[in-house]
Amino acid sequence: MSGAGAESSAESGGFPDVRPRRLRTTPAMRRMVAEHRLHPADLILPAFVREGADRPVPVSSMPGVVQHSLDSLRAAAVDAAEAGVSGLMLFGVPDEAKKDAVGTPGTDPDGILQVALRAVRAEVGDALVLMADTCLDEVTDHGHCGVLDADGRVDNDATLVRYAEMAVVQAEAGAHMLGPSGMMDGQIRAIRRALDAAGHQDVGLLAYTAKYTSAFYGPFREAVNSSLRGDRRTYQQDPPNAREALRELALDLAEGADLVMVKPGLPYLDVLRQIADRVTVPVAAYQISGEYAMVEAAAERGWLDRERAIEETLMAFKRAGADLTLTYWATEFARWLRAHS
Length: 341
Ligand code: PBG
Description:
Enzyme class: lyase
CATH architecture: Alpha-Beta Barrel
Number of domains: 1
Distance between the termini: 39 Å
Family: Belongs to the ALAD family.
Organism: Streptomyces chisholmiae
Bound molecules: ligand PBG
CATH class: Alpha Beta
Order of helices and strands: HEEEHEHEHEHEHHEHEHHEH
Pfam family, one: ALAD
Largest sheet: 8 strands, parallel, barrel
Function: Catalyzes an early step in the biosynthesis of tetrapyrroles. Binds two molecules of 5-aminolevulinate per subunit, each at a distinct site, and catalyzes their condensation to form porphobilinogen.
Strand content: 5-15%
């Protein structure tokens, strides 16, 4: 038998008979034997749009990322589509004064997210899969992903009612797919039923199946001007738990999820792999704001090679079983892939 264990024979004088390095000798050789390949269609671009902005506003903790104006968002959508990116996940940033306890801007047909969905859909049509964040944290004055009860706790079932209303308004504004990111129990089923009842059977659901409470969401809070008081530990998953993700997975699939996702990305590759091994629906990873910021900050200091680091992280998701990755580098990286292929 050849292979590991048979090497170092006496005849070869103690040198290896089997040499894995042979397949690493040239770029063409390495390219030929690569087990995974990245493609622009793997990528989905998350983007922020700010009400009333007449130009893009930089997000200081995410160098290169902005809160778009409607015009710059339309241009970014065209760029993403031209680069071959598959989808756009939109987050709205309403006027501070319009936020309230129940998140009224989220269900107002003229709320910024709905206005932006209509604008992007008019600009690029079906060239991108247009997705909307179905969550209350961007639109509530307390910054929680749900509505609060009299004791200030996030009220699961009252929140489901709000999500169902938001979902219909977002579908009517042109979203192809919704991403409920609030981790309320039963959210996929509640939204699916509301969409179907309103005639939106074709609008899909990207389930945030395993969404962990994470320090790496930090820069996102700046990106959406979040006013969060407290934390999200009573609804997002606790970092020690992996098996629990499989329970959430079973629920999301039973409730009608079309895609399932793990978030954050790099700290939860083990969860991603376990989910990818078990499902027949496409699997996504979300490389979140803090993951983006870490690489950008270290690269800015010259501490690592930016392009190589980005590529390596995106390959990690692919290797761990993701079909799709949401990343703030989507358009830029899709362009590199085109230039280098
Ligand atoms: C909640 C939501 C968050 C993110 C996406 N949707 C913030 C949170 O859960 O605290 C984070 C995305 C990122 O950090 O890039 N609507």
